[in-house]
């Protein structure tokens, strides 16, 4: 089995350190998955660049977390499911809606359901959405710009989800309560 290091600020390649510092500032810690990504300055730098855009976009942080959790479940990345479960609950998403997403179901909240459905469909269809997929999303009160913005969130989560599946970083203690097996 190939193992990947989980870098700290001290052990990371020099070119990865600025990205790790940004994540440290955002989360108050360097998530293990970011420490694993730091092996590649290109990968960690790409994530951090996209991270700022995704979390500074037009969706609320709760809506972003609903998409990120949906993506983690759809991509079967156990680390990301636990992490985004924790953040979704922290952002005030109803626990039943969080559990629905973790179970592969749609949340009861209509806006979150539309976001979750679009994100899951986007991944499952590899971006080949049809007019009905987009129409349902727009009917929930979102615009075409929002549909395109979901692509950026899915891209960011794909980086994290694929890294988690490949590197298998250990799950930090704060996220253990939300451990997940797909």
TrEMBL record:
Domain Carboxymuconolactone decarboxylase-like: where?
Answer: 54-119
- The organism's place on the tree of life at top rank: Bacteria
Any Pfam family from its record, for instance, is CMD
InterPro entries recorded for this chain?
AhpD-like, CMD-like
Q: Which Gene3D superfamilies match?
A: AhpD-like
Q: Under what name is this protein listed?
A: AhpD family alkylhydroperoxidase
């Amino acid at each position: 089995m190939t193992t990947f290091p989980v870098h700290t600020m001290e052990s990371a390649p020099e070119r990865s350190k600025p990205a790790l510092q940004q994540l440290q500032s955002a989360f108050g810690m360097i998530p293990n998955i970011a420490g694993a990504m730091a092996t590649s300055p290109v990968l960690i730098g790409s994530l951090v660049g996209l991270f700022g855009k995704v979390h500074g976009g037009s969706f609320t942080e709760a809506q972003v977390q609903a998409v990120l959790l949906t993506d983690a479940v759809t991509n079967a990345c156990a680390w990301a499911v636990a992490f985004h479960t924790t953040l979704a609950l922290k952002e005030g998403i109803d626990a039943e809606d969080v559990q629905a997403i973790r179970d592969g179901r749609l949340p009861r909240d209509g806006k979150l359901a539309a976001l979750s459905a679009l994100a899951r469909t986007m991944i499952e269809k590899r971006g080949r959405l049809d007019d009905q997929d987009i129409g349902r999303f727009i009917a929930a009160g979102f615009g075409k710009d929002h549909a395109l913005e979901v692509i950026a969130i899915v891209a960011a989560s794909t980086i994290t989800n694929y890294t988690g599946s490949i590197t298998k970083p250990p799950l930090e203690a704060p996220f253990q309560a939300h451990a997940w097996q797909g």
